[in-house]
Amino acid sequence: MRALCLIVCCLGIGAAELVDLVEERDGKRYPIPVAADPAFVNQWPDAEEARFMDKAAHLIAVRGTGKMGGGGSTVNEREKELYPTSMFWILAGREAEGVANLQAPQRYDPKEHHAYTDGFDFWYGFTLKGQMRKYFLFGGLLDDDYRTRFEAAFAKWTVTDPRETPHPFYMKYDHKKQGWTPERFGNRQLDGRRTDNLYAMSTCATYLFAEAAGNEETRLATWNRIREYGTTMYMNGIGEWDSENYLSHTMSAYINLYDFAQDPMVKMHAKGMLDWISAAMAVKYWRGGWAGSVKRDYGNMMALDGNSQKCAHLYYDDIGLACDGDRDDVHHITSSYRPPMAAVALAQGRIDAPIELSISHPTYENWKTDSAGRSGRDFPEFIETFMIGHSYRLGTLPFGNGGDVNGFKMITYNSKRGTDYFVVGHGAGQDIDKLAKKNKTSTRGKMVSRDDGNSNVAQFRNLVIDVSDNGAAEFFVLVAPGGVAEQRNGIQFVRHEKTWIALTPINLSWSKHADGSRVYAEAGDILHGLGKGGDYSGFAMEVGEAETHGDYASFVAAVVAKSKLSGTGGEWGYTGSQGHSVGLKHVGGKPGMMVNKADQAWVLDHIRSAEEVLAAYPVVTRDGEVLDWTTRFAQYQRLGAGDSPISLGFKQGVLRLQADGHRFTGTMTAEGVFSFSNE
Fold first, then answer.
1. Do residues 432 and 418 touch, judged by C-beta distance below 8 A?
2. 661 three-state secondary structure
3. pLDDT at 451
């Protein structure tokens, strides 16, 4: 065993010390995480830590010996590739190349962008995220002159609050410009967008650099922003909730804050945010897949096809799925942060299934107020029903898909590749046609962004009804490769490895879509539902598995003999083969939160009341009982009897996890003070 010592910066401008950054043993290079006081750490058993470290060593071997991808350079925000890849190179032993990239001069951007900070880029969020670890962890490798100038630059940048200080050259906002550069947003000195991931990057960088430079006024102003964000997270969630693409970007930014903040209160607050994110990941991630509803959907159709899956794979994978990770994983593998063990057990499915959860999500910009000072924080905008079976995880929203929100997705057990996807959408036809004409294939589809009519969805455990107010709607359903099975009495059956689905049509016909199944062949087959005309079309769905029906043949027989669809127009009921029932009354138009622009509340400068929002929800019955949506405000709660693997009340700030004998409690006060316990 041999430790490779590299000089890295410790906290405080100009200070450096020798620390062990990489350990080499058995021909592999393992990262040595940033040291943390045990009081800030979720302790892991040795076996779990060894599993994580094996994955980290694999990433160093693969990403540290590979080529620079994604146009990595210092142009605009291309440091998002340049910096993390260069850090991987250093961990892999390519110190000279990696360090040269970390201190490469800024090129091609107009010199006016960064002239006032000696050419160092502190504008773009992804660049700022890389700048933090570049300085606080790898800074001792930089040339003395470069490091001295870098320190002087961020000290100057944080003398005043860069979010509130005009750019010295551009000075003011120019509404005639487009994009996100200083030419347009000259009223500030950083990219001030409030998307969760970019906001995390810019606020954490501002805080850490202000703290290191001793600029206390800026540090406190930024700490107040961070504290407000983390408190809101525990009270009612985040705007980019459960995003397969962005949740991991948000996590890696707060990992920087956790690793490098000197103030213990800030460090503990950062841990609280990471615990919340880890819990959200543990619900949606399973066996490499990502289940249920998501904001900012990227059309992922396969296991490990999104950034958040790759990040969660590091912490939660227990089946040995092959994965080369993401460039941002350099933040995760060099950090001492680990999720609570209860989150690990939940993600790995070590719970007493089946369990049905209710999950609420806020509006995209829930932090924003209108001209009257009203905010959207007093009620959730999205209420998701989420079912954890023995062989699947399924989540739906009462309005299905809209804008960039995926509201109907299930992942199912696959022994070889972790999971298969079952995704219901409407807008895939155009993408399928384009791919087919170009004779191309893809593992990502745009079934979400172009909805066809307004769908209303009702779910009760393993039963779902999905009805569109377009009688000629097209439903595109991704199923496992070869998953389209027989039709019996008009019911379309779908067969996944351990999970079986019955789709009873409502004024539509089912058929396998030849072109769709060809262009998405690697991900699966496309089942096409085409409405027959009139006012409404859709389907009822029942999910079965060995624990409920024994085998596939018995499931088919039970559904054909016992299930029953009733109703007409926009009001339907379905009784499943086990006697439980779900009902849906369609309410008409899609609410503003499910569309892209003009009707969104935050664009209209109108924050609606809870009564207005809930009046637009469909009427849902579960075993004959009308669902009262006001009982579903909690961020996480179990539906039905029994202990919940996760709970977090609305505006209560206490997150509880329990799975496989592990218990975690994390409490965020209204003042932003976080505390936790693991049992």
1. no
2. coil
3. 60
SS3 of residue 566 by DSSP = strand
* pLDDT score of 596: 47
Helices and strands (H and E) in the chain: how many: 18, 29
Using CB atoms within 10 A of its CB, is residue 116 exposed (0-12), middle (13-18) or buried (19+)?
A: middle
| Secondary structure of 204-249 as H, E, C letters | HHHHHHHHHHCCHHHHHHHHHHHHHHHHHHHHHCCCCCCCCCCHHH
Q: Is the peptide bond before 354 cis (omega within 30 degrees of 0)?
A: yes
| CB 657 within 8 Å of CB 663 | yes
pLDDT of residue 628: 97
3-state secondary structure 53-72: HHHHHHHHHHHCCCCCCCCC
What confidence score (pLDDT) does residue 250 get? 97
**pLDDT under 50: residue ranges of the chain:** 1-12, 14-18, 596-605
Distances (CA, A) of 446 to 291, 295, 421, 525: 17, 14, 14, 15
| Tokens matching residue 429 | 């036809």
Give, to the nearest 10 degrees, the angle between helix 196-213 and helix 247-260.
10
Q: How long, in residues, is the chain? A: 679
Distance CA(227)–CA(44), nearest Å, equals 27
Tokens of 146: 């470069």
In degrees and rounded to multiples of 5, residue 227 shows phi and psi of -65, -40
Q: Give the rounded distance of the alpha carbon of 483 from its chain centre.
A: 27
Q: Which tokens sit at 621?
A: 């019955």
Cα gap 230→642, rounded to integer Å: 29
State both tokens at 190. Answer: 């950083």
Residues 6+ apart with CB under 8 A from 202: 125, 128, 163, 190, 191, 192, 193
- At residue 502, φ and ψ (nearest 5 deg) are -110, 125
In a 3-state reduction of DSSP, which class is residue 597?
A: coil
Alpha carbons 79 and 85: distance in angstroms, whole number: 9
Domain residue spans in the chain? 2-342, 351-641
> If we measure between CA atoms, which residue out of 548, 570, 619 comes closest to residue 562?
548
pLDDT at 2: 38
Q: Could you give phi then psi for residue 561, rounded to 5 degrees?
A: -85, -35
Question: What SS3 state is found at 677?
Answer: strand
Q: Taking the CB of residue 137, how many other CB atoms lie within 10 A of it?
A: 25
d(CA 678, CA 673): 17
Residues 102 and 138 sit within 8 Å (Cβ to Cβ) = yes
Is the distance from CB of 189 to CB of 162 less than 8 angstroms?
yes
pTM reported for the whole predicted model: 0.95
Q: What is the pLDDT of residue 15?
A: 44
The per-residue pLDDT for 436 is 95
The pLDDT of residue 11 is: 40
